[in-house]
Design goal:
CATH class of the largest domain: Mainly Alpha
Order of helices and strands: HHHHHHHH
CATH superfamily of the largest domain: Cytochrome c-like domain
Helix content: 55-70%
Structural class: mainly alpha
Number of domains: 2
Distance between the termini: 93 Å
Shape: elongated
CATH architecture of the largest domain: Orthogonal Bundle
Length: 161
Amino acid sequence: MKDQDSIFFKNFSLMLGFLILLTIVLAIVGYEMHHSLIDSNDMTKDRSAIAKSIQSVSQVNTGEAIVAVADTAAEEVTVAFDGTLDGKTIYDNVCMACHNTGAAGAPKLEAAAWTERMAVGIDGLVTSAIAGKGAMPPRGGRADLSDEQMKAVVEFMTAGF
C-alpha cells in the first residue's frame, strides 16, 4: 500500500511540476509577444491607430448631424427636400425604412393596412403624418418637411388604394 501511495505522490509531483513550468513558459512567451507587437505598431505613442481600428464601419442618417459630416450627403439632402421633388423621392429617403418593413406598427403599402385609415381621407392622413401617430414622430422625424411635401408623400403612399 505504501508503494502505491509513493508512486501516486511521485507522479502527481511530476505532473504538477510540469504544469507549473508550462505556465511560466507561456507567461514569458505571452509577455514577449505583447511587447513586441506594441513596439512594432508603436501604439503607445500614437493612439489614433487604435481609434481608427475600432471605428464604426457605418453611420445612421438621423438628420443634420451626419449631413454636416458627409459633404456629398449634404448636397443630396438639400436638393431632395427643397420642395421640388415628388412624394416618392421623399418616401424613399424618409418613410421607406419603417413602412416597407412594418417596423413599430407602421402600415405597409398594402391595401389591407390602409382600408380603415383611408376613412379619414387624405387630409386626415396628412394631419396625422404631420402631428405624428403612434411610434411615428411628427413629420416622420424630418422637421424640415413642409406641409405640401407631407401631402405629396401621403398621396404617393395611398395612390394605389
